[in-house]
Each structure stands twice: as structure tokens, then as C-alpha cells.
Amino acid sequence: MFYTYARFTFNRKKEGTAEKLHETRQDLQLLEEEVAEKRERVRAFAGETILRGEDFKRYVNQLRGKSNVYKVRQYLHFISLAGEGGVCVCRKGKILKHQRR
After folding, report:
1. H or E element that contains 25
2. Domain boundaries, the chain
3. Cβ neighbours of residue 92 closer than 8 Å, sequence gap 6 or more
4. Rounded to an integer, what distance in angstroms lies between the CA atom of residue 72 and that of residue 81?
5. 95 HSE (CA, 13 A, CB side)
6. Cα 47–48–53 angle (5° rounding)?
7. Residue 88 contacts residue 82 (beta carbons within 8 Å)
């Protein structure tokens, strides 16, 4: 009698564990599909190359260099505009505000 009850309990636990394993495998499969879908979206968005490590640092430094060049050009353009009028553009704004009053 004891052995029958023990075997019944063991089988019930075994079935419960098998069911949990099955559910976990289904969850794993869903998550793997989700990861694959997200990878496809990343590839479509970013292309085939994703910069990492040193390549990314090099890319950031190139952008900083371009940004600095742009800022210098804008500044020189601003200086040339200020020089043409004889009065700084920002000063012209103050003069116009004062004239409106």
C-alpha cells in the first residue's frame, strides 16, 4: 500500500515537472522568436554594420571633428556678416528694440 501511494505521488510530481518543462520550453521558443524579430528590425534599421568598441569611438571622434569644423565655419560667417554692416548683428537687434520704444 505504501509503495503504491509513493509511486502515485512520484508520478504526479513527475507529470507536474514535465508540464512545467513543456511550458518553459514554449516560453523559451516565444522569446527566441521575439529576439530574432528584434534582430531583423535592427538589421533593417541600422544596416548590416553595427559599430562597437574602437570603431564606435573612432566614429564619435570623426563626428566631433566635423562638428568643430562646422562651428568654426559658422563663426567665421557670423564675423564676416558683422564686419560687412559695421555693427554686430546682435547689437543691431538691441538698436532696433530701442527704436521701437
Report:
1. helix 2-46
2. 1-50, 51-101
3. 85
4. 14
5. 6
6. 105
7. yes
Q: Is the pTM above the cut of 0.70?
A: no
What is the DSSP secondary-structure string of 76-93? Answer: HHHHHHHHHHSS-HHHHH
Dist. CA 86–CA 92, nearest whole Å: 10
Amino acid in position 3: Y
DSSP assigned state of 53: T
- The length of the chain is 101
> What string of pLDDT tens digits covers the 101 residues of the chain?
667 778 888 889 999 999 999 999 999 999 999 999 998 888 787 666 777 888 889 999 999 999 999 998 888 888 777 666 655 556 667 777 777 76
Distance CA 32, CA 40 (A): 12
